[in-house]
Amino acid sequence: MSARDEESRSLVLGIESSCDETAAAVVANGREVLSNVVFSQADEHAKFGGVVPEVAGRIHLDSIEPAIQQALDDAGVTLADLSAIAVTAKPGLIGSLLVGLSAAKAIAWTRDLPLVAVDHIEAHVYAATMEAQADVRFPAIALVVSGGHTALYSVGSTFEMERVATTLDDAAGEAFDKVAWILGLAYPGGPSVSKLAESGQAAAIRFPRYSPKTPPGGSGGVRPIGFSFSGLKTSVLYHVRGGDALQPTPPPEEIEDRADIAASFQEAVVDSLVTQTLRAAGQAGIDQVLVAGGVACNQRLREVMHKEAKEKGIRAFFPSPAYCTDNAVMIAGLGWQRFQAGRVADLHLDASPR
Ligand code: KG4
Ligand code: ZN
């Protein structure tokens, strides 16, 4: 690298603590990853089958400083080399967000560095563009699909996103987590259910796919778009109870067709996600789709989305798996873009759960 490139390289430290991952990363110029530290709390929450907010906040408090130090060490830099600090300010668990935000403010204040507030959802979407920046054109339709969110956005630019559809109830990742619990598989459910699904038949059981009803009075010939996964989860539960809701749920080792259930459930989720996303893109006349969030790791979703998008003349972009689940690279990356655009926060910045 020439001295000139070195000079024009600006480093942002990203901090992410909105849910159950304490993460810190150093990224140069919004896309060159110098370090990516993620301390997962999954094992701590596994015994409860989901994230416990009080537990999450307490662990963030212990992990935040070591995570930041490791991100700087791995990148081979010190605080003096940074141009800005970016931090997730919303949405998320308030007690968890405040830990990352307080750390970021303290560093910004003591080192006299600009502080940049990043929206966690926008950062997930940015991750899908980060590795393929030159190829992605706006407008795009973004599907953000994780343990806490399942929604579609119309994306006008790196900084402009408008929600066009969401889930009526559970997020898709939450459905994976609950079905894993029913089947006696490890938390988080996405990886364990999709692993078991590899040895099952996706067509074995026809679980329901939600499709929003046209409202009374019609919707002007346009099919409504949306998601719902709680009916699907209940169907899985009834299936394991032998179709009789009054029966108790059998212990996992007594469920004979576990792999078929996992594969058929996954197929139903993937079918809904792909159908609704491509419908949104088609209706808006948009030919670029961005898929982000933890569930975007899912191989079957990647496969079906790419295939069906291609048939419709649409290009689909996914981040690398490491940047699908919660991470601070996406925070530092989008943070750099915001910093470059002069979108800097002040030290009164507050965290918000929404
Ligand atoms: O984005 P993320 O790390 O955290 C939230 O913001 O929620 O997403 C975590 C979610 C979990 O529900 C997990 O089960 C799901 O992403 N997940 C997957 C896969 N890997 C993670 N779901 C389906 N297939 C996967 N391979
Ligand atoms: Zn997330």
Q: Determine the mean pLDDT.
A: 93
Instruction: Tell me the number of helical segments per DSSP (H or I, 4 or more residues long).
Output: 11
User: How many structural domains does the protein architecture include?
Assistant: 2
The CATH C-level name of the largest domain is Alpha Beta
Which ranges are low-confidence, i.e. pLDDT below 50, for 5 or more consecutive residues?
none
Structural class: alpha/beta
Write the topology of this structure.
Layout: H1 3-8, E1 11-16, E2 21-28, E3 32-40, H2 42-46, H3 53-75, E4 82-90, H4 94-111, E5 115-119, H5 120-130, E6 140-145, E7 150-157, E8 160-166, H6 172-182, H7 189-197, H8 230-240, H9 258-284, E9 288-292, H10 299-311, E10 315-317, H11 329-340
Parallel strand pairs: 1-4, 4-5, 6-9, 9-10
Antiparallel strand pairs: 1-2, 2-3, 6-7, 7-8
Helix pairs in contact: 3-4, 5-11, 6-7, 6-8, 6-9, 7-9, 9-10
The structure holds 5'-O-[(R)-(carboxyoxy)(hydroxy)phosphoryl]adenosine (KG4) and zinc ion.
